[in-house]
Amino acid sequence: MCFLCDLKSSPAANDGRAPRWQARRAFVLAGAAAAASAAWPAAAQVDVGQSSRLRNLVPAEQLESIANEQYLQVMQEAQSQRVLLPASHPQVQRLQGIARRIIPHTHAWNPRARDWKWAVNLIQSDQINAFCMPGGKIAFYTGILDKLQLSDDETAMIMGHEMAHALREHARERVAKSSATSLGLRLGAQLLGLGDLGNVAADLGAQLLTLKFSRQDESEADLVGLELAARSAFQPRASVSLWQKMTQAGAGAGPAFLSTHPSGPNRIRELEANVPKVQGLYEQARRG
């Protein structure tokens, strides 16, 4: 719907007597439409809708700073335990090579990503797990690569999925919702300029590695990650084979990844339905 077109076609507009409030309303609606369209790339092939405005209650800069500190702590602990693999390790180089292909396509989904200090590390562990924290701090565990025998295309789907959580600011939204629930009347005080939800972000920062995303968050991350990988010349069908492997792995001990990334037939069907939407992007990227 074009609000400006509606305004032009109205009788008052046609006779030159459009009231001031109507023109002002059209301006506001047009601005709202522009803001909505900016919530995801105009050229996106997958449809994930708008990001939640609730996330704006938590300052992005502060949450990213907290995430960076927590990421450094995790890496330092891994290094002290001698399980942080060096940059010269072939698997680390492999992950960093995949990241270099995907990163140029991330800022279309979140302009802040252009200034993120991206990092990719690999921790030696049997865990079937990976994550990307706010601000672009990525970690994989060797278990997810070795136990699932992931190809580069499947690994790119995992990485794109995790990047998508950061790009769509799902952690920021979760923290904001937790803040709103726990603060009660203090939330109202913040909206009146009487409080500071940034302090809440600091209080909840320690939860960033254990946040459980909603099914909608997971679906968004699947689809945005699929498109990111396709634009980076990774085979879209790998998203389906990845989650087939993940489902099989979940039939056993229940890997850590599945505790925050639920699998199932519906998830695979949704990916299968969206693979054709990004196939052209993949083929174009391959030719380029």
Report what the structure shows.
It is built from 14 helices and three strands. It has 288 residues and is mainly alpha-helical. It has one domain. It has a three-stranded mixed beta sheet with strand order 1-3-2, sandwiched between helices. A hairpin with a 3-residue loop joins strand 2 and strand 3. The longest helix is centred in the C-terminal third of the chain and has 23 residues.
The gist of it:
The protein has 288 residues and is mainly alpha-helical. 59% of the residues lie in helices and 5% in strands. Helix 7 (152-167) crosses helix 12.
Number of separate structural domains:
1
Radius of gyration: 22 Å
In DSSP terms (H or I, runs of 4 or more residues), the helix count works out at 14
Global outline? globular
Order of strands, main sheet, comes to: 1-3-2
List keywords for this structure.
single chain; 288 residues; three-stranded mixed sheet; globular; disordered N terminus
Outline the fold blueprint.
Layout: H1 3-9, H2 11-14, H3 20-37, H4 60-80, H5 90-102, E1 119-123, E2 130-133, E3 137-141, H6 142-146, H7 152-167, H8 170-183, H9 185-191, H10 197-204, H11 215-231, H12 238-250, H13 256-260, H14 265-287
Parallel strand pairs: 1-3
Antiparallel strand pairs: 2-3
